[in-house]
């Protein structure tokens, strides 16, 4: 087993703390083109995703990659998460995974 | 949701699981864990075949993550699951046609829900898979991590109780200490007043115990109005804010309830 390269669960706000690190988040797609995706994080912030994305995209996608700024991710993997996703639950999970229970994740 | 899959599990579970694990498997259920947590579990037992995490046995685990490195062989399929906290090898023995059907759905890059037996072979940990299925509702991933946190909170609470010495480890093992188990046990035989006893020690701090013990005294339990918070503070010689904290904790546990107003409380059962 290997825990050397984790991807931290983040929302828009937590991106700031992990610039240069591997992160994972779920966004609602606002606009997609050849260069990537612009989306809205679960805490209503804009996130730009650069890199290869699957086609077609569903309403929600998960992005795993390196945060190269507080608002953008260089994507390694973009996964379709379907057209309905509980963003509030995910946002709460972000708080826990970066708060008291951080040690369970990274 | 663990049980919803049991109908699929039964066949392969018997076929693929070693006899040595059978005894210990009865003691704990499926434990939802992050792979980071699994990496931190330590070995226990003489043959080092068992795992312990935060003092609790870990035998069967649930993990949810993305599949990679699928390798098919004659009698088994191995793959890696990455849940974002780490990567863990999984092995599914393929004995029956149904196992083959199950594995046909598992493809590179998809998210799967895996239930299996945590094992160690030549120092490497892996999951001996009972059941694996693709995740189709992605809220399940959020749910899994919330379940991991919940499980962690519950087991740490149990540990804290043992540490405090409010109860011996023997009685901990013999008395049910989760509400669900309690409910199941209670429905069998125990009268309701006894069922509440494990509750009364479950993770409650010293002050909580004092407040509860006072309210449960038979002469106080008889008081229909209950007791005013100020009176409790006075009688127990505790600061009011501590009383309020305990009141909230006890109310959450269903041990006490408010009576004529939000300042009067009464125990749900007598001591």
TrEMBL record, chain A:
Q: Which GO terms describe its molecular function?
A: DNA binding
* Entry-linked Pfam families: Rep_fac-A_3 (PF08661)
Q: Which InterPro entries match?
A: NA-bd_OB-fold, Rfa2
Q: Name one GO cellular component term.
A: nuclear lumen
- An annotated GO BP: DNA replication
Enumerate the subcellular locations listed in this protein's record, separating them with semicolons: Nucleus
Q: Which Gene3D superfamilies match?
A: Nucleic acid-binding proteins
Keywords of the record: Nucleus
The text of the family note is: Belongs to the replication factor A protein 3 family.
Protein name, as recorded: Nucleic acid-binding, OB-fold
Q: Which organism is it from?
A: Artemisia annua (Sweet wormwood)
UniProtKB/TrEMBL annotation, chain B:
Name where it's found: Nucleus
Q: Pfam families this protein is in?
A: RPA_C, tRNA_anti-codon
Tell me where in this chain the OB domain is found.
61-134
Query: What keywords does the record list, in alphabetical order?
Result: DNA damage, DNA recombination, DNA repair, DNA replication, DNA-binding, Nucleus
Which residues lie within the region annotated Disordered? 157-194
- What Gene Ontology molecular-function terms does this entry list? single-stranded DNA binding
GO CC annotation: what is one? chromosome, telomeric region
Instruction: Please report the stretch or stretches of sequence annotated as the Replication protein A C-terminal domain.
Output: 152-262
Functionally, this protein is described as follows:
Component of the replication protein A complex (RPA) required for DNA recombination, repair and replication. The activity of RPA is mediated by single-stranded DNA binding and protein interactions. Required fo cell division in meristems. Involved in the maintenance of transcriptional epigenetic gene silencing (TGS) at specific loci (including some transposons) by regulating histone H3 acetylation, 'Lys-4' and 'Lys-9' methylation.
Q: Which family does it belong to?
A: Belongs to the replication factor A protein 2 family.
Task: Give the protein's recorded name.
Answer: Nucleic acid-binding, OB-fold
């Amino acid at each position: 087993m290997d825990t050397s390269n984790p991807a931290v669960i983040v929302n828009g706000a937590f991106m700031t703390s992990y610039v240069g690190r591997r992160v994972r988040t779920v966004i609602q797609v606002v606009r997609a083109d050849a260069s990537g995706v612009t989306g809205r994080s679960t805490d209503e912030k804009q996130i730009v995703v650069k890199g290869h994305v699957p086609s077609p995209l569903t309403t929600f996608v998960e992005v795993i990659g390196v945060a190269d700024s507080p608002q953008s991710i260089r994507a390694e993997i973009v996964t379709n998460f379907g057209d309905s996703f509980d963003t509030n639950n995910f946002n709460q999970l972000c708080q826990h995974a970066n708060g008291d229970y951080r040690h369970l994740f990274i | 949701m663990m049980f919803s899959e049991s109908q699929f599990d039964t066949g392969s579970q018997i076929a693929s699981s070693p006899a040595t694990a059978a005894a210990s498997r009865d003691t704990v259920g499926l434990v939802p864990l992050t792979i980071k947590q699994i990496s931190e579990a330590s070995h226990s037992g003489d043959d080092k075949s068992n795992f312990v995490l935060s003092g609790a046995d870990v035998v069967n685990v649930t993990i949810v993550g993305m599949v990679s490195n699928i390798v098919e062989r004659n009698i088994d399929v191995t793959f890696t699951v990455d849940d974002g906290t780490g990567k863990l090898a999984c092995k599914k023995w393929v004995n029956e046609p149904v196992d083959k059907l199950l594995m046909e759905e598992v493809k590179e890059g998809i998210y799967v829900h895996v239930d299996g037996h945590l094992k160690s072979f030549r120092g490497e940990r892996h999951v001996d898979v009972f059941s694996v299925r693709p995740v189709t509702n992605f809220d399940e991933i959020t749910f899994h991590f919330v379940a991991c946190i919940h499980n962690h909170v519950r087991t740490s609470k149990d540990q804290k109780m043992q540490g405090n010495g409010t109860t011996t480890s023997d009685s901990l093992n013999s008395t049910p200490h989760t509400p669900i188990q309690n409910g199941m046990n209670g429905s069998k035989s125990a009268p309701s007043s006894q069922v509440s006893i494990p509750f009364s020690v479950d993770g409650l701090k010293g002050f909580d115990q004092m407040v509860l013990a006072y309210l449960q005294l038979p002469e106080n339990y008889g008081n229909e109005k209950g007791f005013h918070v100020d009176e409790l503070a006075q009688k127990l010689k505790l600061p009011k804010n501590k009383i309020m904290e305990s009141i909230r904790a006890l109310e959450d546990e269903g041990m006490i309830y408010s009576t004529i107003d939000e300042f009067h409380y009464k125990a749900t059962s007598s001591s």
